[in-house]
Amino acid sequence: MDKRKLRKIYREISKEEISLKKAQEEIDEFIEVIQEAILIDGKIKFKEIGTFEILKRHSRIIANPVTKEPMKIYPKKTIKFRVSKNLKNN
Questions:
Q1: If you ran DSSP here, which 8-state letter would residue 66 be given?
Q2: Is the N end or the C end of the chain the one with fewer CB atoms within 10 Å?
Q3: The pTM is what?
Q4: Residue 32, SS3?
């Protein structure tokens, strides 16, 4: 689902009549709040929905598939989302 579909759904389930632009602004604001909270705490739990958390990938050395030369992959952080059991069962 892309943002265009998401804002249409958000607009439909909203209690008050809002424009598509206002719906997009509210969605963007929510995403920013989620990003800030993950950076501060490293983990966000939504009961009934799931958990967002930061994973740290360590550096490692692999072989380049074409030249077979060793390459170093640098460490990085990724965000993982685990779905709650309630949402899995539906």
A1: T
A2: C
A3: 0.67
A4: helix
Query: Which residues lie closer than 8 Å to 75 by C-beta, 6 or more apart?
Result: 56, 57, 58, 59
Residues 26-74: pLDDT tens digits? 999 999 999 999 989 989 999 889 999 999 999 999 999 999 999 999 9
Positive/negative CA dihedral, 65, 60, 40, 86: positive
Please give the structure tokens belonging to residue 56: 């740290």
Q: Are 71 and 62 in contact, with CB atoms under 8 Å apart?
A: yes
Q: In what helix (H) or strand (E) does residue 54 lie, and over which residues does it extend?
A: strand 50-57
Residue 12, beta-bridge partner list: none
* 57-71 burial: b if 16+ Cβ within 10 Å, else e: eeeeeeeeeeeeeee
What is the torsion angle, in degrees rounded to the nearest 10, for the CA atoms of residue 55, residue 49, residue 7 and residue 15? -150
The rounded distance, in Å, linking the Cα atoms of 28 and 40 is 19
The helix/strand/coil state of 27 is: helix
